[in-house]
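Lab notebook, bench 4. We co-purified these components, and the gel suggests they stay together. Before we commit to crystallization screens, I want a quick structural picture of the whole thing.
Request: model the full complex, all chains together.
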Amino acid sequence: EVQLLESGGDLVQPGGSLRLSCAASGFTFNNYAMSWVRQAPGKGLEWVSGISGGGGSSYYTDAVKGRFTISRDNSKNTLYLQLTTLRAEDTAIYYCVKDRAVGRAAILDYWGQGTLVTVSS
Amino acid sequence: DIQMTQSPSSLSASIGDSVTITCRASQSIGRYLNWHQHKPGKAPKLLIYSASTLQSGVPSRFSCSGSGTDFTLTISSLQPEDFATYYCQQSYSTSLTFGGGTKVEI
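Here is the predicted assembly.
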């Protein structure tokens, strides 16, 4: 059974930093691309970033380019998202999502329960 | 980025009804279109991928049609567990985008 367990969400001040983690199990982690998707309060889903199975390729939505960094440790079956220069509009539930393929994020087939990031002074 | 527009943003329906949700892309995306279901407080769930393929375990009352820029998701004979918000999502470009969502209410 695929399991994705996010952690690291917290209350942080504007301009601050945070690292989210996602522990994966139930599948061969390095065979699949992974993504982070967020949902701001009262809003819809927004894809944030994706990374290939080997970690050599990564992709970002324009709103977070230069501020967020996605990475993965395939020896630990863990996905990360480093968030820096945080803004109020980054407040959201952040979901870790597995893809069906290895190359790039495309078909998001399994989702975690999410971790809440709140940016406020 | 490719913009995805869903309509309606919400709809009311009864058990047993058939409902249709539309999704339009700002440019042609072939059949690179996926649908997700999201219930409050739960993890979203993939329903359909590549415009017409049901994810394993998804009931056959869910179906999708379309290609290019226009797609529809149909739920025939609505069941109590189908009340949720539905999102289309394109995977044509490396920057994935979602539609704004359609909330299906009783």
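Chain B touches chain A at residues 1, 32, 34, 36, 38, 42-46, 49-50, 55, 85, 87, 89, 91, 94-101 (CB under 8 Å). Worth comparing against the SEC data before the next meeting. Residues 24 and 106 of chain B are 25 Å apart (CA to CA).
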